[in-house]
Amino acid sequence: CQVKIVGIPASQRHYKRAALLVRLPSRAVSETAPHPVSKQRPSNNILVAAQELGCTPEQLQLALTPYMDNTSPLPLDSSISLSNLQLLREYISDRDALAHLCTTRAPWLLLSQELSSWVSFLQHYGLPHGHQEYLLLSSPQLYLSSDIFRAGQALMFLQSLGLDQQEIIDQVILQCPGILCMDVEGDLQPRVDTLRLMGMDDMSIRTAIYDEPLLLVMDMEHLATMSLGG
Fold first, then answer.
1. What is the pLDDT of residue 228?
2. Residue 28: its pLDDT value, please?
3. Which portions of the chain are predicted below pLDDT 70?
4. Comparing C-alpha atoms, which of 172, 211, 217 is closest to residue 23?
């Protein structure tokens, strides 16, 4: 008997919206906050990066200024990393998309101390090149998280539910990468327990999570009031 979960809003079913569910500090993901005008002269690295991205050094520095200070609680450096830019170029073939990512969408990727570690971690887990490109463009917040150990625990938890590695890569991570930032005991296990209290057995839970990975990041109150359909 297969159990189907109903009640997830249509707007949350689209994988592009689901891919944005990465819970990180608001300062890291803000795309609309006004940028203060920088009075510093662009560094040599900014000059090089701006040339690579096809923008002016002033435009790039303006985008980076909110993140280039030593008081940030985020895992960021105070100066731009050309190695980060080179890494991004290896995965993002479209130059316009890369320029938009680095100057508008997520300029802090050029300052991130964790970018190479996350790319390496996901690569070793088995994510192909195209999957990494998609995640970088759709969910760059993921690459700001410094807790790769937590991500590893989340992956083992998903496997313990009966999902194999390829299913996790193709279905869960791409649709809802925010799962990798969630704590197993505090976030994931309670949601699975809630599904069990709703009458689902292990196989039904595995199928439901494969079909709707958003179940594992959904608000607990919403999850508890959802209906089951056979």
1. 55
2. 42
3. 1-42, 70-72, 227-230
4. 217
48 by Cβ neighbours in 10 Å (0-12 / 13-18 / 19+) ranks as middle
What is the C-alpha separation between 226 and 230, in angstroms, rounded? 13
The one-character DSSP state at 105 is: I
The residue written with tokens 């998903």 in the block is 158
Q: Which of 164, 172, 184, 139 shows the shortest CA–CA distance to 20?
A: 139
- Residue 214's identity, in one-letter code, is L
**DSSP letter string, 161-228:** TT--HHHIIIIIIHH-GGGGGS-IIIIIHHHHHHHHHTT--HHHHHHHHHH-GGGGTS-HHHHHT-EE
Position 227 scores a pLDDT of 60
With residue 5 as reference, give the H or E element that holds it: strand 4-6
- The dihedral region occupied by 26, where left means phi > 0, alpha psi between -120 and 50, and beta the remainder, is alpha
Residue 105 pLDDT: 95
SS3 (DSSP) at 50: helix
Predicted pLDDT at 36: 45
In 3-state terms, what secondary structure has residue 134? helix
Pull the structure tokens for residue 177: 């990468």
**Residue 112 backbone dihedrals phi, psi, to 5 degrees:** -65, 135
